[in-house]
Design brief:
CATH architecture of the largest domain: 2-Layer Sandwich
Helix content: 25-40%
Order of helices and strands: HHHHEHEHEHEEHEHEEEHEEEHEEEH
Number of domains: 2
Largest sheet: 8 strands, mixed
Oligomer: single chain
Number of strands: 15
Mean pLDDT: 94
CATH class of the largest domain: Alpha Beta
Distance between the termini: 49 Å
Strand order of the largest sheet: 1-10-11-12-15-9-8-4
Number of helices: 12
Shape: elongated
CATH topology of the largest domain: BirA Bifunctional Protein, domain 2
């Protein structure tokens, strides 16, 4: 959620960057409701002050209370109750409208839709002619979507044997890699309540485009990423400035309906309903967040360079950012099967958007308190990691060469 003071002072700017993100925001309506809400609040404050004053006088009075004061107290009680009802209705509308406004975008974000994202870097050699990962893995009996569908439905799967061990090796290597960069390892709850889900910028239960699985009869949803519980970890807390940045890395399963992904590449393990992911997360001061964003991107690049996967980095265009992100980088790997780039990891600077939603603040050295910034970045999304390694390290004899950096985590095997 944006700071309402920023919206009041910059209505045209808010309307424009909302449009650039693909949101139709009636800023005038938001500010009208905000003004009405504040006006009712002021009226309630005045009446409550008068009511309290009368109560104090009556308490101190000797003998029978003044009838005029009693009648005035009754009138105030009725008027305050009516205003409280009006305020509740306005506040609910105000909150709904505020949730509909996305985060502001950084000045260097390209304007436009997905195709307008800008490549800022390439690394590695483009190759071609590989066998599709699903065909390769199925032939080795490493993955079973048929039995996954029998047990849970389409796009659920079993990993078996050496491919399951390879997933574990990738996880252990990436975890070692990231913790050596200063991130604290955390396991996280696999469910979050509605406040945390909405506060991190994921669609609420009532949204038909929601990508989350909700627990019927409970204020809980399965997490789409460890970003959700990691954000909530410091909800309603004030963190001293000298403790920032705080850097965490969370390992979790991720559950996604993949709503709204019609037409996107979804073969095999590339887009599934459940997968494991190692997610980096940082809480920073506003002054630290841009540098931290570059650091997270550099860590992602260094990790995939060490494995040996060619990729490019793109600065995501405004229309493809989503509500929370002010700026986002995607790392896309080169697919020798499709001879094009495919999604691999991303990292986002959400500035103060998520932190304001969940009341996460920093106490400055001078004692002042303000909203801090949050950032997230994928170290490895395991299903897609398997896809890209199968595509790049397969051999003509049906074996798979184990990337050198992963061999210590896979019994020192050179191939599987």
């Amino acid at each position: 959620m944006l700071d309402i003071r920023y919206i009041r002072e910059n209505p045209d700017t808010v309307k424009e960057f909302s449009r650039q993100k693909g949101y139709d925001v009636d800023v005038h309506h938001v500010l009208t409701v905000d003004e009405q809400r504040r006006d009712v609040q002021q009226k309630m404050d005045v009446l409550r002050t008068e009511r309290n004053s009368i109560a104090d006088v009556m308490k101190k009075a000797q003998g029978k209370p003044d009838q005029e004061q009693i009648e005035r107290g009754r009138v105030l009680k009725t008027e305050i109750a009516s205003l409280e009802l009006t305020y509740k209705e306005l506040d609910e509308l105000y909150t709904k409208l505020m949730w509909g406004i996305p985060n502001a975008i950084k000045p260097d974000v390209p304007i436009g839709d997905e195709e307008d994202s800008v490549e800022i870097k390439q690394w590695g050699e483009h190759t071609s002619g590989a066998i599709d990962h699903l065909d390769f893995a199925t032939k080795r009996d490493w993955v079973d979507f048929e039995r996954g569908a029998k047990v849970a439905g389409a796009k659920f799967y079993y990993l078996k044997g050496d491919l399951a061990l390879l997933e574990n090796a990738i996880t252990q290597y990436a975890l070692d890699f990231v913790t050596k960069k200063g991130f604290t390892y955390m396991t996280v709850p696999n469910m979050v309540n509605g406040r945390i889900a909405t506060g991190t910028g994921f669609a609420p239960r009532s949204d038909s485009q929601s990508d989350e699985y909700f627990i019927e009869g409970e204020d809980l949803s399965l997490i789409a990423t460890a970003e959700m519980p990691l954000t909530g970890y410091h909800a309603d807390e004030i963190i001293d400035e000298d403790k920032l940045p705080l850097m965490y890395v969370g390992l979790s399963p991720c559950y996604r309906k993949e709503a709204g992904t019609y037409g996107k590449h979804a073969r095999g393990l590339f887009r599934v309903h459940q997968f494991n992911k190692l997610e980096m997360y940082a809480f920073t001061t506003p002054q630290q967040s841009e540098a931290m964003h570059e650091t997270i991107r550099e860590i992602e690049e260094e990790l995939w360079q060490s494995i040996g996967i060619p990729y490019h980095v793109i600065n995501i265009a405004s229309g493809d950012l989503g509500a929370p992100a002010a700026k986002k980088y995607d790392i896309e790997y080169w697919s020798p099967v499709d001879e094009m780039y495919r999604e691999l990891t991303s990292c986002s600077n959400c500035t103060d958007f998520q932190a304001r939603n969940l009341n996460i603040r920093v106490r400055r050295k001078d004692g002042t308190v303000e909203t801090l910034h949050t950032l997230n970045g994928t170290a490895v999304s395991l299903a897609r990691s398997l896809v890209t390694i199968i595509e790049h390290f397969q051999n003509a004899d049906g074996t798979l060469t184990v990337p050198e950096v992963l061999r210590p985590y896979l019994g020192s095997r050179d191939w599987i």
